[in-house]
Amino acid sequence: MTVRSMIETIRLTLEDEMARDERVMVLGEDVGTQGGVFRATEGLKARFGADRVVDTPVAEAGIIGASIGLATAGMVPVAELQFLGFAHQAFHQIGFQLARFRYRTLGRFPLQVTIRAPYGGAVHAPELHSDAFEGMLANAPGLKIVAPSTAADARGLLTSAIRDPDPVLYLEPLRGYRLVRDEVPDDEHLVPIGTARIARPGRDVTVLAWSFQVVNALEAAEAAAEEGIEVEVVDVRSLVPLDETTIAESVSRTGRCVVVEEAPRTAGFGAELTSTVQELCFLDLEAPIARLAGWDTPYPMPLLEKDYIPGTARILDAVRRTVAF
Amino acid sequence: MEPLQLLAPDGTLTGDVPDGLDEDRLVGMMRLMLLGRRLDQKAIALQRRGKLGTYAPLSGQEAASVGSSFAMDPDVDHLVPQYREQLAMLHWGLPLGTYLLQRYGHPRGAELPEHRRLYPQQVALAAHAPHATGLAWGLRLRGERAAVICHFGDGASSEGDAHEAMNLAGVTGAPVIFVIQNNGWAISVPLHLQTRGVIARRADGVGIAGERVDGNDVLAMYAATRRARARALDGGGATLIEAVTYRLGAHTTADDPTKYVDADELEDARTRDPLTRYRTWLTGAGLWDEAREEAAVAWIDETVDEAVRVFDAAGPVDPGAMFDHVYADEPPRLARQRAEYLAALGGGA
After folding, report:
1. CB spacing of B165 vs A65 below 8 angstroms
2. Using an 8 Å Cβ cutoff, are B113 and A83 in contact?
3. Which of B135, B139, B171 to mutate to test the interface with A (most CBs of A within 10 A)?
4. Would you tell me which of A182, A313, B126, B222 could form a disulfide with B162, CB atoms 3.0–4.6 Å apart?
5. Which residues pair with B179 in a beta bridge?
6. Which domains, ranges and CATH numbers included, belong to chain A?
7. Is A145 on the interface with B (CB under 8 A)?
């Protein structure tokens, strides 16, 4: 075990997977000589060469579309989208080509493709760099979506994603790239896709979150503990497939649930979680399920973003209200 | 940019017969082109009787499809087709019965040959073009000596994906051939509203080879594609071939072209019919006659009848097919939905 930052862990995991399997290649904008705008691919081109670490033209649909072709040729592409916000320009290739290729070919053309994308706000980024629209792509069956909140999970989920026989969208929290640091296994580490993680056990209320909101939820839980409220934080970490078992077991035990996400509230993935918990835990619920999300506005100018994203204070407030109900 | 032409519209040979075409293959091209024309008639009739869903006829574009396909090696090369490439798909070994099942909407119509050199037909315009580039690039990275051919139309050429695919092919040196079937129409929109440029010239903009070819001349299409394939295999990279042709029929069976196609223009296009032109030359060369035509028609009718028999024998749809092949391993949430669906059908979980 070594304490590492999330970005360092992602770089290390890519290097390990490329060393393990010569079919694995990295492609995207600025991933080669520069090593990525966040340095997630630093040093990879020097070690593995320009054929396996490829600076592509600035063309997101082309990057994802070509990854589909590369996979059918027997490569294992790990495509980087510089920001998830730019994935809009590849939306049809991700949601409607990549995701359903296995289905529309009756399994003849499975696609072992990973898309890495930094996302989420609170880093004072320019317009269209901060949006969290994972919910739009969760609506595209055939695609898996994971979003780690710890460096250890970043390693475990990225390894699993690259080896998964199906396409995986791997979301990296921009805010957590250097802020998140924890003990990471030095050797091969896999976290099964489709499993949630109890990030902090507690008996009074369950908070469901993923990516950087888990960090905020843990902070809120710490504050709540001082008031005598024991919060259980469940890191959903795999949106598709969803670990309904862990989620339902937790909420049935605590009887209360707060769902947190960064996306605009209407049709955010949190709505899916809320509906699932309501279906699976109805008779155990002691209070209405509380939802926290971004407001139903476009992502605001950076000076307002701290009031847009549900932070620790709003989570703590929702926890108090839900427990007092 | 004058299109390459080896056969004048009256069937006169104006150049040399390209290398690689012996008598069997010259005749084979005629037979496949004829099959295309008759398949249109039969498929439209089946659609009118409610046996097929929407069908996209290919009449007028037989030479562009067949000439470009014959220049490739289906035992080695890969085909990434758009939906009007029935003939190319058949050439790559797709059973006609499977093709008809696809048009009927039967899940088994999605079956592809085991050899995996045939991609599924693409319906989203030009979305398959980056796939073709990636596939060709990957073949090169894997050290396989093979090329990829990808067809789409003049309408699809306006899509961003078409540009992204051709540009990426340029920088990666991918051994891919884009055949743009410029048939004059994108459903009801004529070419001059689609672009004011010469499509083949776009190759210059992305640094790949470009050729403009008379798409109604099967020998010219064959020659240009054969050259492009040699370039691809020799490390010379990608080629864009603009096949200048004309869509003689409707966009699909859901379309009524009499609303927007000028009758005189259509009559004029018929004078450049690719079948008539090739038949005339082939007959003059002593390789075709009435007996051969009759034998070909009999073979086609038997092929189509056999396909319809396969189609009729496909049986009812397995309801569970709705849930098959979404993922390698069915997630619990999806398994529950499958059980819910089957239970509602009375089939139990």
Report:
1. yes
2. no
3. B135
4. B126
5. B151, B241
6. 2-184 (3.40.50.970), 197-324 (3.40.50.920)
7. no
Hey, what domains does chain B have and what are their CATH numbers?
Answer: 23-317 (3.40.50.970), 319-349 (no CATH)
Within 10 A of B283 (CB to CB), how many other CB atoms are there? Answer: 16
Q: Measured on CA atoms in the order B137, B142, B147, B153, is the torsion positive or negative?
A: negative
Does A144 lie at the interface with B, CB-CB under 8 angstroms?
yes
Instruction: Count other C-beta atoms under 10 Å from residue B41's C-beta.
Output: 13
Cα dihedral sign for B187, B192, B197, B201? Answer: positive
Which residues from B are below 8 Å from A when comparing CB atoms? Answer: 80, 107, 110-112, 116, 119-120, 124, 127, 129-139, 141-142, 144, 160-161, 164-165, 167-168, 171-172, 324-328, 331-334
- Look up residue A171 and give its two tokens: 């979301």
CA A157 to chain centre: 10
B163 part of the active site: no
User: Is A228 within 8 Å of A204 (Cβ atoms)?
Assistant: no
3-state SS record for chain A = CEEEEHHHHHHHHHHHHHHHCCCEEEEECCCCCCCCCCCCCCCHHHHHCCCCEEECCCCHHHHHHHHHHHHHCCCEEEEECCCHHHHHHHHHHHHHHHCCHHHHCCCCCCCCCEEEEEECCCCCCCCCCCCCCHHHHHCCCCCEEECCCCHHHHHHHHHHHHHCCCCEEEEEEHHHCCCCEEEECCCCCCCCCCCCEEEECCCCEEEEECCHHHHHHHHHHHHHHHCCCCEEEEECCEEECCCHHHHHHHHHHHCCEEEEEEEECCCCHHHHHHHHHHHHHHHHCCCCCEEEEECCCCCCCHHHHHHCCCCHHHHHHHHHHHHHC
Summarised one tens digit per residue, pLDDT across range A206-245 is 999 999 999 999 999 999 999 999 999 999 999 999 999 9
Assign B349 a pLDDT band (cuts: 50, 70, 90). Answer: very low
A129 has a chain B CB within 8 A of its CB: no
Task: Please tell me the distance from the alpha carbon of residue B39 to that of residue B321, in angstroms, as a whole number.
Answer: 29
Task: Enter the ipTM.
Answer: 0.96
Residue type, B124: A
pTM over 0.90, yes/no: yes
Residues A185 and A155: beta-carbon distance below 8 Å = yes
Q: Which positions in chain A touch B328 (Cβ < 8 Å)?
A: 102, 110, 164-166
Name the DSSP class of B79: E
Distance in Å, alpha carbon of A107 to nearest chain B alpha carbon: 6
Inform me whether the pLDDT recorded for B347 exceeds 80.
no
pLDDT in tens, B188-202: 999 999 999 999 999
Q: Give B306 to chain A, closest Cα distance, Å.
A: 24
pLDDT(A276) > 70: yes
Listing DSSP states for B110-131 in one string gives G---TT--BPPPB-STTTTHHH
Residue with tokens 């018929």: B270
A101: tokens are 């290729």
If one compares A127 and B338, the residue with the highest pLDDT of the two is B338
Q: Are A260 and A315 in contact (CB under 8 A)?
A: yes
* Helix, strand, or coil (residue B236): coil
